[in-house]
Structure formats: C-alpha cells, structure tokens
Amino acid sequence: MTAKTDTQRTEEPVDKSLGGRLFKKLSQGGTKVIVWVLVVIWLIPTLGLFISSFRPEREIKTTGWWTWFQDPSFTLENYDFVLFGTGSGAPGMGDALLNSLGIVIPATIIPIAIAAFAAYAFAWMEFPGRKWLFVLLVSLLAVPIQMSLIPLLQLYVGGAHLGILGLDLTIFPDLDLQGTSFSVWATHTGFGMPLAVFLLTNYMSTLPRDVIESARIDGGDHFTIFWKLIVPLSVPALAAFAIFQFLWTWNDYLIAVTFVGTAENVAPVTVVLANVTGSRGSDWHILTAAAFVTMILPLTVFFSLQRYFVSGLLAGSTKG
Amino acid sequence: MISTLIGVVVAVVGFFALFFGLNKVLDLARTQWSLFTGMLGLGFGLLVGAFLNGNGVGGGLFTIIVGGVIGAAAGAGLGQLRDLPHTRRADIADKVRPWIFIGPALFAVSITLVIPTIRTAVLALKDRGSESWVGLDNFKWIFTNDDIFNVSGVSDIFTSRLFILGVIGILVGLVLARVRGREIGVRADFENPSTLGWLGIGLTGVLFAMFTVLSGVIWNNLWWVFSVTVFATGLGLFVAAVTNRMERGERVAKAIIFLPMAISMVGASVIWRFVYNFQPPGETQIGALNAVMDLFGFDPVPWLIRLPWNTFYLIIVMVWIQAGFAMVILSSAIKAVPGDQLEAARVDGATDRDLFWRVTIPNIRSTIAVVVTTLIVVVMKVYDIVKVMTNGEFDTNVIANEMFDQAFRFTQAGRGAALATVLLLFITPIMYINIRRVQEEAALR
Questions:
Q1: Which of A65, A214, B250, B429 is 20 to 30 A from residue A16's alpha carbon, by CA?
Q2: Structure confidence by residue, pLDDT tens digits, A6-29
Q3: What is the spatial distance between Cα B328 and Cα B330, in angstroms, rounded to a whole number?
Q4: Partners of residue B109 in chain A, C-beta under 8 Å
C-alpha cells in the first residue's frame, strides 16, 4: 500500500502518458459511479412508497412495486379513502391535515416575532448580562426535549402550584390545556426559540453598523429602527428560520403525541400516521397513501425554498 | 379549524399589541411621568388581582379589575409625590427597553425549557407520584434493570469474529502509521487515508462487537449515536467531495441525497418498514430488500425481529435521513477551502488524494466537529423511528422510548425523569463544547 502510493507520488509530475491519464480518469470515474449508485439507493425507498400509493390494494399485497414498470396500473382510491373515507378503520387524514396546519401556522409565526425582537436586542442594544444570556439561550439548543415533557404536561393538566409556609399557592391556573392544539404550538414556540434567537442574532449583527447608527442619529428610536430597517433587511434569515421551524413542527411526533395524544379533533398527520402503522401495519394500500399525504407539503416547501433552507442550515451550524 | 385560526390571529395580534403598548408606555416615562407610574401600577395591580382570584379570594374578573384600579391609583399617586429629573427618566427608559425586547423570548424558554429541566432533575429524585424523596433509587433502578443496562455477555465480546477482525484492523493501522511516519520523519503519521481507514474499520469492528453482544436500552442508544455519526458524516463527506467536482448532475445528486431531510421520521419509518417487509419463504416478497435476497437465491430475512442486528437496520433509517445534512454542511465548507492553498500544494506535486487528505480535511476540521456534535445531540434522543418501526420490542428499545413509556404509560414519573436526566448527562459534554464555540465566535465579532 505504502510503496504504491509512493511510486505514484514520485511519478505523478512526469506521468503525462496516456496510461497515467487513463488511470486518473478511471479512479475519478469510479468515485462518481459510487455516488450515483448511492443516489439511486437513496431514492428507491421513497420511490417505492410513491408508486405503491397509486396501485390497487390487491396488487400491492401480492406483487412488488417494481413490477409496476412492466404492468402499470393507476388508482386514486387509496388517497380517496385515506383523506375522506369514513367509518371504522378510516384514518381521516383530511382532518389531520387541517389539524397540522392549526399547529404549524402559529408555531412558525409566533416564535419568529418573539425571536426577532430578542435578536435585535442581543445584536444592537446594550444591557447588563447580554453576553451570558445569549450563551445561556444558545446552550439550551442541546437540551433534550425529554427533559421538559413531564413538567410541561403537569403544567397543562393541572397548572402550576407552589407550596410555601404550608400554603398551596396557584401561580398558573389549571386551564385543562392537554388535548388542545394550543399546548402543542405553545411548546413548539419555546423549543424553537434558542435556534431562532441564535440564527437571527448572528444575521442581524452582520448588518452594517453605520446604517443603524445614522438612523439613531436621525432620531429614530429602537422600535422604529426595528420595524423600518432591521425587519426588511433580515428577510433572508427570517425566511430561513421560518422554513426550518415549519418543517420541524410539521414533522414532529413526540411533542404532539405527548400533549394531544390521539384526540381526534386535534391530532396532526404524524400522530395519525403512527397510529395507522400500529393498527393496520400490513395494509400497505392505506399506509403508503397516508405516508405520502404527510409528505406532500414539506416536500413542496423544501424543494421550492431549498435555497433558504440550506442557508439557514449553514448559518445554524458553521457560523457558530 | 376555524376556531383555531381565530385563536391564532387573536394570539398574534394580542402579542404585537402588547409589545407595541409596552414600548409606548415606556416612552411615557420621558414625557408624562405620573401617567407612566400609573400604568406600571395598573399592570402590577392586575397581576395581584389575578393571583388573589386564583388563591382563595375568588370574585373572578371583578377582583382583577379592582386590583388594577387600586394599583393604577397608587402608581399615579406615587408618581405625583416623587418626580424625577428628566435625565433620570430618560435613563430609566433606556435601561428598561432591552428587557421589553428580550422579555418574551426569555419568558418562552423559561416556561418550556429552563424551569421544566430543573423540575425534571428534581422529579428524578422522587417516587412515581412525585410525593416523597427516594434519593438515587431511580438511577439505581436504571443501571440494575437488565432491559436497560446489561453487561452480562461482556466476556463474549472477545471471542466474537468482529472483535478479532477489529483488533487486526487497529494493529495494521498502527503499524502503517509508524511506517508512514518514519518515511516523512515523524514518529507516527495519522493523516493519511490508509492509516485512518484501517484504524476506522478496526475501531468500528471492535465497537460493533461490543454493541451486538451487550443488550439493553443504553447500549442500543450508544450504538445509534456511534453508527449514525460515523456513517452519516462519512457518507456526507464522500458525496460532498465527489459531487463538488462534478460538471453535470451535482444539483440532482445533492437534492436526492438531501430529500429525506424533509420527511418526518414517522414517514421515513413507514417508508423503511416497506423496504424491510418480510413474507414467509416461498411467497412473493413485496419488500425491496427481501426481493433482492430472493433474486440472489437467499432465504428472506425478517429484518426487524432478527437479533442483534435489527437495531442496526433501524439505525440505517437515521443514516438515510442525516447523510444529506452532513453533505450540505461539509460541501459548503469544502468549497470555502482557500484556492491558493490547494494551488500551492498542487505545484509541490501533490496528487488529488493528497490534496483531499492533507489540505481539504485539515481545513474543514472544525466543520466536521460541528456536524458530529449536532448529530450526537439529534441521535441521542432518537424516538420516532424506534416507536413506529418496532415499538421498542425485539431488543431495539432506546432511552427516549423507555422514558416515554415509564413516564406516560406506566405513570412512573420518577423513573421517566431519571431516564431523561441520563439523556441530558450524556449530552452535557456536547453542550460544553457548543458553549465554548459560541463564546469564541462572540469574541471574534
């Protein structure tokens, strides 16, 4: 091994012969072939699901989806049943889609608003404890959600009480929030906050200092500068986080199943899909269509706004 | 749906109105001092009223409003009695304003993250109903429960074939490092692909020998973390390095590798359950993997229930999801490697391979660290995939799933909290690294 690489190295500058160049081409070609094989392997599972979701029940259960290429068949029955079907065993994905939207829309808009204010303060205002508060917020990024589930569920179910001097004081009333979509998006709002503040602060602190300072000299107060200057300039970062938070809340299962369980009128698509997998695990005509229904919206968002998503991903990890 | 939407609109509008209003109230400090103190009194009075209403006094809205009125009057009166010079008032406004801006964010993370985390750590020391203190009993239960932490098979590790192969790999790697090092005049050279390759394969072999022999939730978790981190980062690095140099198809290849990132883990689990589908021998296989086995004349394998490798088949799903993440981050880091460094090395006669291992890799080392730490944090708390694919049965359980079951199915709040705390403890070193990095970044700004 060593000897081989060594001769290669010494020969390299001289080796302009056809054989040498051919060897180089081939070894480069080899890695490319491996990448394309990987790409195909990465695509096959999703492709199989997608094709199967349009095949009739009997065919899915008796033949592999790849036979579809020789013997194509097409039906929308699976989707019809999954989305609008009624009666026992119908997953009710149509309602679940609306439930998901009812969670995802507030869970995306509200954290952006809250985090943008905070990010502006961290980037452009002076106050004691600015640095360590920021570090504290960012360090919360790594805290596992599991640490919050039990106390939060207790809060939503029974409110918060504090026992001092033998008195049981109610700090937060029992509003019976378990099983409401509020409990889910409120939780997402808090959990999304560290990343949002981190991304937006990093972005806002790169905005040109003289622009903001001249606005201050012209008599603009912080509130005006924030609305008229910072928010329009920060649209790329706001969009990046919005896509992030949208995908994360739409695809979340753990928080939803903890706080709404299987309550039919609020359960989002991921919870319904997981339930169907548990109860009808071998009914592939239902499972494939149901799974694809959960994926349509995130995939659309993802492909149409991929640039923003990637830039957010990069800002979130490489910059800090 | 309609009521949810109305609720959302009310929440958003209310939040902005509150924020705007607080800023306006603060402006009053400069111009109309006693009105400002009156508003402060109003807010404080409303809070006291609400607190009294919830703690025995009752009276509902009436109590709250009375509290507000009394507070407002008291505040305005105090403001009249004690006026401050204009500069001091402006100073107060400037000092308070940042807290209005970060207040909502601090409130949100306090309620959902900070206070619950502390409370969970406390609950971990209490019994199942959170009534009496039990010391470290819950942790003792974790590490003496055979389903969670089991070291009974530890001696079998040394006789397993994987272990022996792994040790050979490590030895070859060490010898190579020494030989290569002597050639370039250092004690040992660990920066060339063949040394690293052998060491990596050897280490993986030894660790896999350990993970396949030892059973229990915690070992499974460590298997997950190690495998996903190594394979997703490795595959992502490979694909990034190769596609970055492709003239055609770079975007398509990257988009397809990246696609699983958009799919929920529940969705991914359904997709892979279909891939792993098993029908008894002799029947038509509808799962892709068993169809391939069939094609080559092997018996179909019930992938998800065959011990001990079924855990690894679940891990593959996570690698499938996370490789795209690693690829995107590493790809942009590779593109940012300074061109003059590459050019200088090329002039010195370095091959493409040397360039990659001796220029690119050292340059992107910190980015690799970011990818690895991020993956460790994500994978440590893996839940959805295990829940949907096997529900933790057939020895595939992980900490997060056990935590959920203990806390919410078996109503063992103490044990659930202890398991969550174990997760946090595993992640603490990563948190420390992240904090250091953010502090360094902040110092550079």
A1: B250
A2: 434 444 444 455 665 666 666 667
A3: 6
A4: 137, 140, 190, 193-194
Rounded Cα distance between B9 and A105, Å, is 10
Domain enclosing residue B228, as ranges:
217-396
Q: Which of B83-92, B123-132, B255-264, B319-328 has the lowest mean pLDDT?
A: B83-92
CB-CB: which of B113, B238, B445 is closest to A190? B113
Q: What is the mean pLDDT of residues B62-74?
A: 86
Q: Chain B within 8 Å of A304 (Cβ-Cβ)?
A: no
> Looking at the structure, do residues A98 and A236 belong to the same domain, yes or no?
yes
What is the SS3 string spanning chain A?
A: CHHHHHHHHHHCCCCCCHHHHHHHHHHHHHHHHHHHHHHHHHHHHHHHHHHHCCCCHHHHHHCCHHHHHCCCCCCCHHHHHHHHCCCCCCCCHHHHHHHHHHHHHHHHHHHHHHHHHHHHHHHHCCCCCHHHHHHHHHHHHHCCCHHHHHHHHHHHHHCEEEEECCEEEEEECCCCCCCCHHHHHHHHHHHHHHHHHHHHHHHHCCCCHHHHHHHHHCCCCHHHHHHHHHHHHCHHHHHHHHHHHHHHHHHCCHHHHHHCCCCCCCCCHHHHHHHHHHHCCCCHHHHHHHHHHHHHHHHHHHHHCHHHHHHHHHHHHCCC
B239 touching A (Cβ < 8 Å): yes
Which amino acid makes up residue B392? G
Q: State whether residue A64 sits within 8 Å of chain B by CB.
A: yes
> What ipTM was predicted for this assembly?
0.87
Same-domain check for residues A56 and A195: no
Domain count, chain A: 2
pLDDT of res. B136: 92
Residue A47 has pLDDT above 90, yes or no: yes
What local confidence, expressed as pLDDT, does residue A1 receive? 38
B106 touching chain A per CB within 8 A: yes
Final residue in a domain of this structure, among A19, A51, A82: A82
pLDDT digits (tens, 9 = 90+) for B143-178: 988 888 888 878 888 888 889 999 999 999 999 888
Which residue of chain B comes nearest to A244, CA vs CA?
B262
Partners of B349 on chain A (C-beta within 8 Å) are: 9, 12-13
* Residues A114-125, mean pLDDT to the nearest whole number: 92
Residues A33, A66 within the same domain: yes
Same domain as A161, residue A129? yes
Nearest chain B residue (CA) to A102? B4
A317 and B256 within 8 Å at the Cβ level: the answer is no
Q: What is the pLDDT of residue A165?
A: 63
- Claim to verify: residue A53 and residue A138 sit in the same structural domain: no
- Is-above-0.90 flag for pTM? no
pLDDT of residue A2: 40
Chain B residues in contact with A65 (beta carbon < 8 A)? 286, 288
> Is A153 in the B-facing interface, judged by CB distances under 8 Å?
yes
Examine the domain organization and report whether A140 and A71 are in the same domain.
no
Contact A45 B275 (CB under 8 A): yes
- What residues of chain B, 333 to 392, have a C-beta less than 8 Å from chain A? 333, 349-354, 367, 370-371, 374, 377, 380-381, 383-384, 387-388, 391
The answer to the question of residue B73 being in a domain is yes
